[in-house]
Amino acid sequence: MSQNQEFENLANETRSFPPTPAFTNAAIAKPELYESARADRLGFWADQANQLHWHKSFTKVLDWSNPPFAKWFEDGELNISYNCLDRHVEAGFGKRVALFFEGEPGDTKVFTYRDLLNEVKKAANLLLKLGVSPGDRVAIYMPMIPEAIIAMQAVARVGAVHSVIFGGFSADSLASRIQDAEAKIVITADGGFRKGKASALKPAVDEALANQNCPSVEHVLVVQRTKGEVAWNPVTDLWWHEEMQVVSNQHEALGFGAEHPLFILYTSGTTGKPKGIMHTTGGYLTQASYTHKNVFDLQPAQDIYWCTADVGWITGHTYVAYGPLANGSTQVIYEGTPDTPDWGRWWDIIQKYHVSIFYTAPTAIRSFMKLGRKVVQHYDLSSIRVLGSVGEPINPEAWMWYREVIGSNLAPIVDTWWQTETGAIMISPLPGITHTKPGSAQVAVPGIELAILDEAGAPVGPGHGGYLTISEPWPAMLRGIWKDPERFQETYWDRFPGSYFAGDGAKFDLDGDLWLLGRVDDVMNVSGHRLSTAEIESALVSHPFVAEAAVVGAKDETTGQAIVAFVILRSSQLNDLGSEADTSKILRDHVAKEIGAIARPRTIIVVSELPKTRSGKIMRRLLRDVAEDRPVGDITTLTDTSVMDTITGKINAGHSE
Ligand code: WTA
């Protein structure tokens, strides 16, 4: 398999970068972290949890008597927003900047910790005024503006549960998530600025709510960002800025149980229906703040931290909305795209705010790499001292470029592996300690136990690929799938009883360093975004032209994987169709409308048949061979072995898009 061959190249990686003595001497993380976690894992996590403020201390660390349903710090009580805001103001850091906001058009706003607390208290009062009670769900569908973070913090402050839906999702995707969670309130904006223009968000909310489609929703709070025209429903809609003017800025944060639900975040799985991943309060914040501090070597009084993730993804939850604030750090948030007004924008922001810790995705790094060093070299990036990568495997070439061009050959790179489900970073080097190799995520962070297993559940040992599993429960782990405990059990725990099955392939090299090998299931990773093949197939077959569809993730130089769809058209519709190029455009747009632009296939290939096994299962492996333009593998299990000849014959004749 090509993936294995690729790994063999990776395994031969001989470059290794030790930390500089100066960095090591000043580093936050000390080697004793590994020792104390090894000596007493639960005691170690209790120590981490005790760095937070507890309204009521916990006496129990972990209850794992009913796996896979874990309870961490169960009898303790805390308020997550108090931990992120009030306690820093009370400790005398009210004047420290919490957020530097950079709007895409160039407008800026600065929030100190005191300012942010003030806004969050008002927003909390607004939610209470609208009848939000602990445990109620609030959907958030926002651009990357400060109000998105204020909304999340306020929902958590009053003990309600947020479900943030990425602003790039369509009205249909939004509606199904609102319905599944039965959200009472939707917080949105008129729109946001992207690629140099206003991009509306409110119409998708209007469409999702039309015809009583989401009957649970009582109010829609609308932040005014672009000042574009919006349709208005006087029964449900309220302007955020008007409401925020008339509420009090006094609000006392109450303690909630450590296992009180904090948020639901939908993510793609192997079926067509997204999973509502559920996280709770105490364990999540413990691991979020511990990893944010130690993995990024955070020195809160000096560092300017910038994570480019949107709050619509888990990275924007843990490493924008919660971890950095829990640690009292100063961070930058940016609304727009990296190419507006030109590809210098990110580097300009780093120069302007003296960003010292920068966390982004390999896709972005590869895009810049393609453009060449010139784009970056005009800017002073000397403030950078730690670089992070997340979301997909980073290839050694991109890693080296990141190190040399962005990190001046000096800043340590932390390649962090984790998932929506794990809630926080699980595998990463620790700057100042770990010798890093380009492309390796290196080691489990202290307190995390993992194993790489073969089909039969036995550890594979160094040098062999296998399934990545987590062997012991961890504080930020998902507590379930919203309304679907069976799916939670089946998806993550049945494959290797007692262990969490991550769905990723991995391998230890002979030095014991870990390499991620990509997904082992039907989940694709496009530009660091998780998408399921089944979800896109069902969007395709919902179009009247399409009889059958099979989707695969094909290797792509920039986006990691790209979506390639093989479709069989309905013969009854063939007369209505134009050229294949027209059909392809219609179907690509259809998927974008059904799911969101991130799911738009790169390529649509019209075929007359799909390769299937005798039991009717589509052999995606063969389609992936075609999509990646290499000889087709073993076809002996196909019902009709001539199918692949027809498909490849067609591709070779140049009929594909
Ligand atoms: C992939 C994002 C290799 C992996 C935080 C995982 C990675 C999925 C890395 C989770 C990494 C994430 N190296 N692969 N450093 N980080 N992944 O839920 O396949 O959006 O299962 O969480 O991204 O994606 P999710």
The CATH architecture of the largest domain can be given as 3-Layer(aba) Sandwich
Largest sheet: 8 strands, mixed
From the alpha carbons, calculate the radius of gyration and give it in angstroms. Answer: 24 Å
Question: What gap, in angstroms, lies between the N and C termini?
Answer: 26 Å
* Number of E-type strands: 30
How big a fraction of the residues is strand?
A: 15-25%
Helicity range of the residues? 25-40%
Produce a short descriptive summary.
32% of the residues lie in helices and 22% in strands. The chain is built from 21 helices and 30 strands.
Q: Topology, pairings included?
A:
Blueprint: H1 2-11, H2 21-26, H3 32-39, H4 41-49, E1 62-63, E2 71-72, E3 77-78, H5 80-93, E4 97-102, E5 108-112, H6 113-129, E6 137-141, H7 146-157, E7 161-164, H8 171-181, E8 185-189, E9 191-194, E10 197-200, H9 202-209, E11 219-223, E12 237-239, H10 240-245, E13 256-257, E14 261-267, E15 275-280, H11 282-295, E16 304-307, H12 314-326, E17 330-334, H13 345-353, E18 357-360, H14 362-371, H15 374-377, E19 386-390, H16 396-406, E20 413-416, E21 450-453, E22 465-470, E23 480-481, H17 485-492, E24 500-508, E25 514-519, E26 523-526, E27 529-532, H18 533-541, E28 546-556, E29 560-569, H19 580-594, E30 603-606, H20 620-627, H21 642-652
Parallel strand pairs: 4-17, 6-7, 6-8, 7-14, 8-11, 11-12, 16-17, 16-18, 18-19, 19-20, 29-30
Antiparallel strand pairs: 1-2, 3-13, 4-5, 9-10, 14-15, 15-23, 21-22, 22-24, 24-25, 26-27, 28-29
This protein binds 5'-O-[(S)-ethoxy(hydroxy)phosphoryl]adenosine.
